[in-house]
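Q: Predict the bound structure with flavin-adenine dinucleotide.
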Amino acid sequence: MTEDYIMENLIIIGSGPAAHTAAIYAGRAKLDPLVYEGMMAGGVAAGGQLTTTTEVENYPGFPCGIRGPELMVRMRDQSMRCGARIETQTVDNVDLGTGGSRPARTFKVFAGSESVETRSIIVATGATAKRMAIPGEEELWQKGISACAVCDGALPIFRDKVLVVIGGGDTAAEEALFLTKYASKVIILVRRDALRASKAMQERVLGNKKIEVRWNINALAAVGDKKLDAVKVKNNKTGKESTIEAGGLFYAIGRLPNTAFLNGQLALDDVGYIKTTPGTTKTSVEGVFAAGDVQDKICRQAVTAAGSGCMAALEAERYLSEPAK
Ligand code: FAD
Ligand code: NDP
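A: Predicted complex:
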């Protein structure tokens, strides 16, 4: 064994609310956790998705709201204060081994030139909302364009406006229904002539008087100066172009869970989310836990990510203290 050999108790991969809540609990449990927070991993800065937003109004404890990046700096500070060590590196690869049981069972984590061995891992690498990459999107992102209606829909800029949702899946349906609480009207743009959403959601959408579904429509551009004013669209059957005046544009075209670095070593669902045993954060590999959006395609909220980060730390602690099999 070389001099710089390190055996960690727990490595946490990620830097959003799930990773930091896991780090806070694991630090306080004296597990001496090592966090790899990533360096623009999945195209998002360390701190995760909330670093890409402005005001967070639904995280408990902040009655006047808090800016997303500030909330994440606070979580990071709290992790360190509770004893977590943080490396600003992206995990490129892991070796989850092929068998054996605790305490002999260990895993390897590779980040840049580093390779670290650990007894347990929490994967909290989140997910990234897919974007359209249409003209105007970059300039107007978070100035009328969002990928999270539940997060942003209640903001004053969207009140009593025509709001456009792009997508035809369950997320688009759910977001459109949610937005009817605030909008004067919601228009869903569907790129083909059918919704992908479940039958129940389709019925709710199509039966809602505040929602209009436009079929075979592609968005061409987001238009506006300091905020979104309109969406340019094209009917892909007739080729006709038109402009929809709108105060908001919500993308609901799917998300990419950040699981590529696992190279198939954990069981994933058909879209790449980590499968966990229901009611737990346990993955298909004993000793490896998953928390936050990387294993949750339904709730996708900071507080649910934090809650599952807490569960993962408690389950990792229990796993590490179990008697050898
Ligand atoms: P994420 O926040 O997704 O963070 C995971 C991070 O881990 C990644 O971003 C990356 O930095 C890092 N990482 C990824 N891969 C690796 C790797 N291989 N190695 C090391 N690090 C890696 N929720 C709310 O509750 N309220 C809101 O107001 C709200 N607003 C939102 C606004 C926007 C624009 C978006 C996109 C989301 C919003 N959400 C909101 C949702 C919320 O941000 C997410 O549910 C939450 O951040 C998920 O947390 P997480 O810990 O699972 O991971
Ligand atoms: P989906 O992949 O199911 O749907 C994405 C939708 O966006 C599809 O209609 C797709 O069109 C459309 N789309 C994709 N790319 C583009 C593009 N570039 N331009 C225009 N439209 C585009 O993602 P969801 O996020 O809706 O759902 C993911 C999973 O989560 C599903 O399994 C869903 O059932 C589940 N879910 C369940 C919920 C619930 O049960 N309450 C709530 C939310 C999600 P096309 O159909 O043509 O491919």
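A: The mean pLDDT is 94.
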